[in-house]
Give the backbone structure.
Amino acid sequence: MSPDEKDEQAVQETTEQAPVEEQPQADASETVEASAAGDGEPAEQPKAKTKAKAKAAAKPKAAAKPKAAAKPKAAKPAKAAATAEVADEPAKAAKPAPRPAASRRVVRARARYVRTSARKARMVCRQLPGKSVQEARAILAYTPREVAMAWSKLLESAVANAESNHELLEEDLVVREAFADEGPTIKRFRPRAMGRATPIRKRTSHLTITLTSRPQGHERNS
């Protein structure tokens, strides 16, 4: 065979073999294009997932915030009041009814503008509270002071008020209080040597005596 014929045979063989060899390439390209056209996004999803995981691993995790403590629920006032009333009912029922206190009458006598100072009157009246009428009379009768006569007169007036106005017996009476308050002061002047004048203060006082009945169970003085 001539060299020209050999070249033609080689060209024919190459032309015949080319389609056979190109079919698998076309098929592969078609499969790649089909996968790219049909799936598209899914093919790229693994890469995106890997990138997101890498970013998440790179960022430091934020500290978990502590949960706020649950607030206690406030009790309803209506129910609380109802329970309090229910709890108080047995206590009220258990308490006995209070007994009425025995009333003790108090009789008062007062002498105003007595011409003596309150200091001198208090020196006598301090001995009278707590004494019976008979004991008070004895104390005033043997007290060596002029104001004792004013106190004895006031004591008799208080006894008379108790017997006539409140129907009380003299034997049952006790001196509850005896006190003296300051009254107005009368001012006078006395002439002295070389045309001078010195003041004179004439003091007064208000005397008060209160009597009450003797408490029950207390023995009378003979």
Residues 18-29, 31-44 have pLDDT under 50 and may be disordered. The longest strand covers residues 173-182.
